[in-house]
Amino acid sequence: MLNYPMSHLVIVDGHAVIHRAYHSIPPLTRNGQPVNALYGFYSMLLSAIDVLKPSHLVVCLDSPGPVSRSQEFIGYRAKRKPAEANLLVQLPLLPETLKTANIPSIAIGGFEADDLIATVTKKYTKKIKKITIITGDKDLMQLVTDKINLFVPVRGLSETKIFGPAEVQDKLG
């Protein structure tokens, strides 16, 4: 991250956003190449940057391979459908394109993006005025405080909702 004062950190749940994009945009170019996940990810990222105007940004990614929870809890994610082939070919391109675009990203072997997001929020919550997490993962609502909110795609990629403490209370009770 850069060495000037943080006033608003935006943390992107990379895999949650790219999955949302994959299912929201037509899958192929005219020549049959799947690009919808990456195209949608960057479309949403650029829109969010325009709306949120962060001072700093980081994208958290799931690590490739098994995560520590799958070793601790037999059956973790066992009922989840495998990702479609057209998405799988795009996932490895995300870290590469983030690096090319000079967008900071974090991926640590054995950890999922939500673990990293929780760690980053804990580290920076006292040092910064505001943190916004871009995600479609409702599990991250547990991180919402007066300083941390969620920026959630609601309908495809074009409509979003911000969840602060009051919205989380309304949603979850």
Produce the secondary structure layout:
Blueprint: E1 8-13, H1 14-24, H2 36-52, E2 56-60, H3 68-72, H4 85-88, H5 93-100, E3 105-106, H6 113-124, E4 130-134, E5 148-155, E6 159-163, H7 165-172
Parallel strand pairs: 1-2, 1-4, 2-3, 4-5
Antiparallel strand pairs: 5-6
Short description:
The chain has 173 residues and is an alpha/beta fold. It has one domain: 5'-nuclease (Rossmann fold).
Explain the overall architecture.
The protein has 173 residues and is of the alpha/beta class. It has a single domain (8-172), classed as Rossmann fold (3-Layer(aba) Sandwich), CATH 3.40.50.1010. The chain is built from 7 helices and 6 strands. The protein has helices spanning 14-24, 36-52, 68-72, 85-88, 93-100, 113-124, 165-172, and strands at residues 8-13, 56-60, 105-106, 130-134, 148-155, 159-163. It has a 6-stranded mixed beta sheet with strand order 3-2-1-4-5-6, with helices on both faces.
List the keywords.
alpha/beta; 173 residues; single chain; 7 helices; six-stranded mixed sheet; Rossmann fold
Number of strands: 6
Approximately how much helix is present in the residues?
25-40%
H/E order of the elements?
EHHEHHHEHEEEH
Ranges where pLDDT stays below 50 over 5 or more residues in a row are: none
Q: How many distinct folded domains?
A: 1
CATH topology: Rossmann fold
Morphology: globular
Oligomer: single chain
Q: Please state the average pLDDT score.
A: 86
CATH class: Alpha Beta
What is the rounded Rg? 16 Å
Which structural class should the secondary elements be placed in?
A: alpha/beta
CATH architecture field: 3-Layer(aba) Sandwich
CATH superfamily annotation: 5'-nuclease
Question: For the terminal residues, how far apart are their CA atoms?
Answer: 36 Å
Helical stretch tally: 7
Q: Strand order of the main beta sheet, please?
A: 3-2-1-4-5-6
Determine the strand fraction and express it as a percent band. Answer: 15-25%
Largest sheet: 6 strands, mixed
